[in-house]
Automatic annotation (TrEMBL):
Transmembrane segments: none annotated. Coiled coil: none annotated. This is Alkaline phosphatase family protein. Gene3D superfamilies: Alkaline Phosphatase, subunit A. InterPro entries: Alkaline_phosphatase_core_sf, Phosphodiest/P_Trfase.
């Protein structure tokens, strides 16, 4: 079985000498600095398509540079869930960020995690301490170099709370800021780039824009390698992979009365739908979705999804955040919700969120050290 995104920070903490931390990944020692760079959307299955435009990554894949391993992200294979799983080291059922969007129980509100600030309060929505906090408690500096836009967000607090943040303006050279923080001293340094995932959503995997983003990521890696101190281990990973969904494989639940019937709140995302049903409608909604999406999605009740272990063990107080009915796309299906979501979702080309290898498998690249 591959390791998990949940194993990365505990392993880095053990390498840097944090008490009660276990190196689950068997990282090479010694190191005074561990740099974790997360490339949003760079699933393992996408690496071959990047090689022509990414010579550094091509050298890694061919065994000429560093070491390439494979991990899994947590489910759903979506950025908010994965980032909080990375930061806390636990599965979504324990930290509560169970999807891209979630219904706030007791309301008809849907929380979009990437636009979240302080409502609900991050420390209540995600109450667990992060590994960044644990690093600092152990006397090991933990820093995060993030795009300035993300520094004060609720998702940043939930995933990276306890880190010392360095915000990078949009017109700045991210590599310079990240290298400056790396050279500032020992400890953990975390970096993040979303250029690849943004290009996948807007233009599609394999598009010219996506290949340009791959080249951008590769250039960042090359510059980091050129500037790494000798006592530094660089770990490059991702939060999920992805796939393109053609027009014929898309279903709009809001354009189908049979699928829309009985639903009060729609959450999740196109590859994983959380359906919160009207009183007494759960069984009918589940039956209608199972019939309509036969061969295109797995359809669960909330209890069955939890019992199947999709989210890991689920704390009682988080269960209601999961839909009464959960639809997990298989193959290349996307389940749109045009009346419930911004048009940018409908216009996307690349998607992720479900349980396929293309979405769940992520790399762990070991460099330097």
């Amino acid at each position: 079985m591959p390791g998990s995104i949940c194993d990365i920070l505990p392993s880095a903490a053990a390498l840097l000498g944090a008490p009660e931390a276990t190196d689950r990944l068997g990282l090479p020692a010694p190191a005074r600095r561990v740099v974790v760079l997360l490339v949003d959307g760079m699933g393992t299955h996408l690496l071959p398509a990047m090689h022509a435009d990414a010579p550094t990554l091509a050298a890694v894949s061919s065994g000429k540079l560093g070491e390439l391993r494979e991990l899994e992200c947590t489910f759903p294979s979506t950025t908010p869930t994965s980032l909080v799983s990375l930061g806390t080291g636990v599965s979504p059922g324990r930290h509560g960020v169970l999807g891209f969007t979630l219904n706030i129980p007791g309301t008809e509100r849907v929380l979009i995690h990437i636009f979240w600030h302080d409502d609900p309060p991050p420390q209540h929505w995600q109450p667990l301490p992060t590994w960044f906090h644990r690093f600092n408690t152990a006397g090991i500096p933990a820093r995060a170099v993030l795009p300035q836009l993300f520094v004060d967000s609720g998702l940043t607090a939930a995933a990276y709370g306890g880190a010392r943040f360095r915000g990078v303006p949009p017109d700045a050279d991210y590599a310079i800021d990240l290298l400056a923080e790396i050279h500032a001293g020992p400890g953990l340094i975390y970096g993040y780039t979303n250029v690849l995932d943004s290009a996948a959503h807007a233009h599609g995997i394999g598009s010219p824009a996506w290949l340009a983003a791959a080249a951008h990521v590769d250039a960042l890696l090359a510059r980091l390698l050129d500037g790494l101190p000798a006592d530094t281990l660089l770990l490059v990973t991702a939060d999920h992979g992805g796939l393109n969904v053609p027009a014929h494989a898309r279903i709009d639940l809001d354009a189908d009365p049979d699928l829309a019937a009985g639903i009060a709140v729609v959450a999740g995302e196109p590859r994983v739908r959380y359906l919160h049903t009207r009183p007494g409608a759960q069984a009918d909604v589940q039956a209608a979705w199972a019939e309509k999406l036969a061969g295109r999605a797995q359809v669960f009740s909330r209890g069955a999804a939890i019992d199947a272990g999709l989210f890991g063990p689920v704390r009682d107080e988080f269960a209601a955040r999961i839909g009464d009915v959960v639809a997990v796309a298989t193959g290349e299906t996307a389940i749109l919700a045009s009346a419930h979501e911004p048009p940018q979702i409908t216009d996307m080309v690349g998607f992720h969120g479900a349980r396929t290898d293309a979405e769940m498998a992520i790399p762990l690249i070991l460099l330097g050290g």
